[in-house]
Design a protein that fits this description.
Low-confidence stretches: 76-86, 90-95, 345-356
Helix content: 25-40%
Oligomer: single chain
Bound molecules: adenosine-5'-triphosphate, magnesium ion
CATH superfamily of the largest domain: P-loop containing nucleotide triphosphate hydrolases
Number of domains: 2
Order of helices and strands: HHHHEHEHEEEEHEHEHEEEHEHH
Number of helices: 12
Structural class: alpha/beta
Distance between the termini: 55 Å
Strand order of the largest sheet: 5-6-2-7-1-8-9-12
CATH topology of the largest domain: Rossmann fold
Shape: globular
CATH class of the largest domain: Alpha Beta
Strand content: 5-15%
Radius of gyration: 21 Å
Length: about 350
């Protein structure tokens, strides 16, 4: 059956399904495939912004997507991999099999990014959704350990097989390839970037509702690679109430804004400790959640308390056994935030916060 590309299709969806159309967009002088705008802009919208003839563009897109040549557009057999151009998935299948890709970030180390990634994955999987976790922390991986995933991934015809948790979450992490889990990965930035790209493009993720990408702290190679090479729906920012954490987290937020990423929400971890009498002790000071919401325009998805059970289950690799109302709230708000972000238009609205 002939492929039909229409002007109302999102640029990113077109190039992920038909990578050969990248040269058509670029040949027409529309660079949106190489920037984050393409993740939400339609073909017609992109053409309008760049003052192009939308009918001519759509005609050429259809010619090339159907294996024909378009005048003045050089055919290329392989989709280029580079800044903002979606990577091709394992087995040459476009990344369209993954419905949502979301990165979990924070400028600050140790605030609970991996924990939020893991528990978000667990909550979504409990709702019957298909979840994968790509551990983007190449030099300090912790996801596999906290979810109790052990072993070495094998190579199958469709690509590298991710390992699965007991609850069925697919996981890919650098730790799985180390002879000893305590061996360091002493790599420079380009190697780290290359490994992250391979974890996306060479792994057989198959069909997923969510691919969550756990990122290391900071604003350099790993987050840049993920934001520029993976077709992200958006990012979730993790912070803790300390002012220091918030200031460093602001650097991360500004990075996301600079790279034109979409902020889906903020999670405030270690927000309080519940005392034996039921009162809340804000150990690290009062919440900065409202300020973060004002600064980012993104909703506060949840406030997670300090819970010794979390630390204990992480160390034992049994995070899937954790249950809490706050995490159910987080997962619900996360799904709502994605729907709002993907909605037609309008300002982002604050979502209900975790129970105070
Ligand atoms: N709310 C919490 N209650 C109890 N322990 C927590 C909580 N959040 C995180 N921890 C513990 O703190 C440690 C650090 O958490 P985590 O590894 O998720 O942080 P991170 O931001 O991913 O760190 P890094 O910057 O090193 O990647 C873990 O051992 C985790 O179990
Ligand atoms: Mg981490």
């Amino acid at each position: 059956m002939a492929v039909e590309i229409t002007a109302d299709m999102v640029i990113h969806d077109v190039v992920t399904q038909y990578p050969q159309t990248i040269q058509v967009f670029q040949g027409h002088g529309l660079p949106c495939t190489a920037c984050h705008v393409g993740a939400r802009e339609s073909v017609a919208g992109g053409a309008r912004t760049h003052r192009l003839d939308v009918d001519a563009l759509v005609k050429d897109l259809n010619l090339v997507a159907n294996g024909q040549e378009a005048e003045g557009i050089k055919p290329r057999t392989k989709a280029p991999v580079g800044r903002g151009i979606p990577l091709t998935m394992a087995g040459g299948t476009p990344g369209g099999k993954i419905r949502h890709i979301v990165a979990i970030m924070s400028g600050k180390g140790g605030v609970g990014k991996s924990l939020v990634t893991g528990l978000l994955g667990v909550s979504l999987a409990r709702q019957g959704l298909k979840v994968g976790i790509l551990d983007g922390d190449i030099t300090g991986p912790s996801i596999a350990k906290e979810l109790g995933v052990r072993g070495t991934p094998t190579k199958a015809p469709g690509g590298i097989e991710p390992l699965r948790t007991q609850g069925g979450i697919k996981v890919m992490s650098m730790n799985m390839f180390l002879p000893n889990s305590t061996d360091p990965v002493v790599w420079r930035g380009p190697m780290v970037s290359s490994a992250i790209k391979q974890f996306y493009s060479d792994v057989d993720w198959d069909r997923l509702d969510f691919l969550l990408v756990d990122l290391p702290p900071g604003t350099s190679d790993a987050p840049m690679t993920v934001m520029q090479s993976l077709p992200l729906d958006g990012v979730v920012i993790v912070t803790s109430p300390q002012m220091l954490a918030t200031e460093i987290v602001m650097k991360c937020i500004k990075m996301v804004q600079t790279l034109k990423g979409k902020m889906l929400g903020v999670v405030e971890n270690m927000a309080y400790l519940t005392m034996p009498d039921g009162s809340r002790n804000e150990l690290f000071g009062p919440s900065n959640g409202p300020e973060l919401v004002a600064m980012t325009g993104a909703p506060l998805l949840a406030q997670i308390p300090i819970d010794p059970t979390i630390a204990m289950l992480c160390d034992a690799g049994k995070l899937e056994e954790y249950h809490s109302d706050e995490f159910d709230t987080l997962a619900d708000n996360f799904v709502k935030a994605l729907k709002i972000a993907a909605g037609p238009s309008g300002p982002r609205r604050a979502l209900p916060m975790a129970a105070r």
